[in-house]
Amino acid sequence: PGGEMFSPVRRPYKPPVPTGFIGVLDIYGFENFDNNGFEQLLINYANEKLQRHFNRHLFEVEQSLYSSEGVDWTYITFNDNRPCLELIEGGGGNVGILST
Fold first, then answer.
1. What is the rounded distance in angstroms from the CA atom of residue 97 to the CA atom of residue 100?
2. DSSP, res 58
3. CA distance 60 to 33
4. I need a surface site. Which of 5, 26, 92, 95 has the fewest CB within 10 A?
5. 4-53 pLDDT, tens digit each
6. Local structure of 24: helix, strand or coil
């Protein structure tokens, strides 16, 4: 009757403009999504930290213990993901992705 206080305004949806791409190689392979955001970086970072912890304790610490105790065994080689973590965290005199 006396005029509408609110009138529906419809605007077309405009998706956000992509500002860049972040992708990290993790133990299971490269995450390849249309958009890799900060959340995916943190998920991959957490996976890399867990993998580093696992590698360190299973391979480095245990094999060092075996050697010190004179256990007859064959050394197991593994891919060290420390360079990936240093890229994200910084290290070796470099500024990491999380520091920028």
1. 6
2. I
3. 34
4. 5
5. 565 567 777 777 777 776 665 555 555 566 777 787 788 888 888 888 88
6. coil
